[in-house]
Amino acid sequence: MNSPRHFAPFFACLVLVVGLNGSSALAHPHVWVTGASTLYFENDLLTKVGMRWQFDAFFSQVLTGDFDTNKDGQFDTDETEAMKAQVFTSLRDYGYFTHLRVNGTETIFDRVEKFSTTVDKGELVFIFDLILPEPLDLRSTKTQLSLYDPSIYVDIVLGGEKPLVMQGIDAGKCNWSFASGEDIANENGMLTPQVVKLSCG
Questions:
Q1: Residue 54 sits in a domain of what CATH number?
Q2: Which of 52, 63, 75, 190 is within CB 3.0–4.6 Å of 79 for a Cys-Cys bond?
């Protein structure tokens, strides 16, 4: 399947994939993502947020059909770069659906590193690191990490056996728990997102 739709912004791409008009597309999710996150620390400061997104079977089949050009069931370097350029890069304007708030202020990620793709049990996986503009000291702060698409077109949650892990910091210095995202929902008029509350002492 050879189509220019992936050059469009990510949301327009998804509308074309599922064949819906814009109004119905925004009514409820049509793409589902199970995420896992790794928080990377250096000298007890948060430096980057690692992400692993596993897409649902249908959307995986569509993108695999478009970008797995040699039909080997995996993605080589050229195929991965094409998917990054035509699908992933457009998410930059949406913060890659990843929202880190410290004391109520959202942190804008500086750049993305180590983008790669793989296939897990027939489902497409994006793997990438979001680099902070400067290391963050999370001690004595109110810190929240949430994943969501404000348009509600993509449903993305942290899940699996290890939805969130921390590297580079001693066990017990930082803890996390799922919390209510009602304050975010009220601000954006959207479904209540999943929120991870971070507590670092």
A1: 2.70.170
A2: 75
Maximum distance among all Cα pairs of the chain, rounded to whole angstroms: 52
How would you write the pLDDT of the chain (201 residues) with one tens digit per residue?
A: 333 344 244 555 555 554 444 444 455 677 899 999 999 999 999 999 999 999 999 999 989 988 999 999 999 999 999 999 988 998 898 899 999 999 999 999 999 999 999 999 999 999 999 999 999 999 989 999 999 888 778 889 999 999 999 999 998 899 999 987 766 664 555 567 889 999 998
User: Rounded to whole angstroms, what are the CA distances from 161 to 35, 36, 103?
Assistant: 11, 9, 29
CA distance 149 to 14: 12
How far, in Å, CA of 49 to CA of 18, rounded? 30
- Per the structure, the complete domain to which residue 119 belongs is given by 4-200
Number of structural domains, the chain? 1
Beta bridge partners of 40: 48, 167
